[in-house]
Amino acid sequence: MISVNNRDFLLTPISDYIISAEKVANVQLGNNAEHALLVLTKTGYSSIPVLDSKDRLQGLLSMGMIMDSILGIAHIEYERLFDLKVDAIMNTDIPTIRTTDRFQRGLDLLINHPFLCVVDEDGVFAGIFTRRVVLKQFKKYIYSDQ
Ligand code: AMP
Fold this sequence. Notes:
Keywords: CBS domain. The chain is α/β, with parallel strands linked by helices.
């Protein structure tokens, strides 16, 4: 088991560790599924945030959700991609953290999610907090001990 003597980093603000919104690929409400599929394919990300016109977080969208939405009884109905809006496909039941939350809350939630969306007090998307960033922090912390 990893033994961490100094737990101060658990209290540091999440804002120190987030990938800021302007660097995060996203889609907007009203975009169609074809556009979202292109963004997901080109970026290679497993899921991306859906924002409204005021940059407020509305949900998350993955390739799996899109494919599931066009699954017909006998075949995949690709022709529906153009008419389907991301609004109807996205998952709105997602955990979020606030820019004012501490590292520890993010760490607890990251156990079950590869990344978390971070929002400000108005629900405006501020960025993401990823497992990769956390692992990098732990690596830095553990190696600096030797
Ligand atoms: P990572 O920890 O970098 O492997 O990222 C895990 C997941 O976080 C990715 O599969 C994406 O769903 C999401 N993600 C990470 N970076 C970005 C980004 N710049 N834009 C959109 N989504 C991202």
